[in-house]
Design a protein that fits this description.
By secondary structure, the chain is of the alpha+beta class. Helices cover 32% and strands 21% of the residues. The strands form two sheets. The chain has a three-stranded antiparallel sheet with strand order 4-3-5.
Amino acid sequence: MTDAPSPRVLMVPVELTQDMQEDLQRFHETCEDGQEYDVPQDRMKGLARAGLIRHVGKSRYEFTTIGAKAVQALSEDYSDYSGLLVLEPVAWADAMAFANFKAGISTHEWMWSAPDTGLVALHLGTPLNPVNGDQS
């Protein structure tokens, strides 16, 4: 019997307009208190196209895992959270060339200073609210 591969956690940035944030939060509120949702249908379809909710029947929707996580993230208060990181791309890598580099068969560079087609961004995380160790 083979072991199933471990699930991978991906951190993917999701850009939401102000309207999408408000609609997502309003849909969540109506789900929490048992009301029918009152977000306009065209905007519900927009949330579904973005993968935040899914259509499950005539005028019925449910949250996707990503949508539920987005609601959670929107409700978090990060004002005092010093551990939050701002990710900045610092280089771009060719995944296949990097795999060849690790295998010892690299034939060319695998990291570049500018983005290009097929390259993957490498990010450096810096604290959003750096903590000064000298403060009491």
